[in-house]
Amino acid sequence: MSWRLRSCVWEITLACCFNCKYCGSRAGKPRENELTTNECLNVADQLAELGCRRVSMIGGEVFMRPDWDEIVKRLTENGVKTSIITNGFLFKEEHIEKLISSGAESVAVSVDGPMDVHDKYRHTGSFSRAMAAIDALAARGIPVSVITTLNAENAPRLGEMYAILENKPIFAWQLQACSPMGNARDGGPDHVFDHGKVIAFISEHLDKAPFALGAADNIGYYTEGEELLRGGSRGFTGCRAGLTSIGIDSVGNVRGCESMYDPVFNEGNLRERSLRDIWEDPGAFAYNRGFERSMLTGKCASCDKGGVCAGGCRSYAYFVHGRMYEAPYCARANGEEKQ
User: Fold this and answer.
1) pLDDT in tens, 218-247
2) In angstroms, what CA-CA distances link 108 with 33, 56, 85?
3) Structure pTM?
């Protein structure tokens, strides 16, 4: 079977102004020997050549890499839609000019709760700066969204977050579960929360929210309104890592998803092999390309949606309990949305 690459999450640097208590990549300092500008431009060309349609650029903090706009521009000139995820702390007017000139499609700002929660796990003043970045971006016509990473402390406060964001000029708000990897595994906040209640919150606010509201692929699955939870699509159809998507880190390691932050998932390095060679390797991404329904375990094995959902988010399952084919907090398995 021929697999078609459609999307990529690309970590261009591990440098960051924070070292958040739930950072899965333990960002802070750049890795030794990160890809050079020329190497990154070459990777951008390879992504386009393989037909990749969309790149989400992450860090660390993207804006701490001086040549970020050159890389974005190379992607967009090749017809690849490119968005940037930022914490907003270092955001300046000069970044807006570069976003416009490089052709970036949109920017997502990470906001993980009301001010007290957000600043507690990031940095004092970081919430205010994130809000200012949102306003500055929107004022210049750059589409801006918000991503919130949920844990036991901030998930119960979604109502407060909604009250803040409904007055902000954003086009979307995505909720994702904190995965217990990196700093989150080593003394970070409790990652466990009630996924059913989050789904109920989304369902309750979908029609009245002034922005698109939905869940990432590690929250679900197949409760009532599943399609709306995924932004009106046909619903979750299984982890796409290595099937239509890849992750690339700042030294050129390629994995099916950039949330699969463990060397066991590295399929190759772009300094040693071309992206096409890695992508078309018949033995690559075997955990998904070789998936069969019989591999499901736990409640997923007997679920009537198991063959479609394929056990949910592969990365989240791996880091929560080590069983890749069994969704650890499936809202369907644990009961419908909780009112």
Assistant:
1) 998 998 878 888 776 678 999 999 999 999
2) 27, 9, 5
3) 0.95
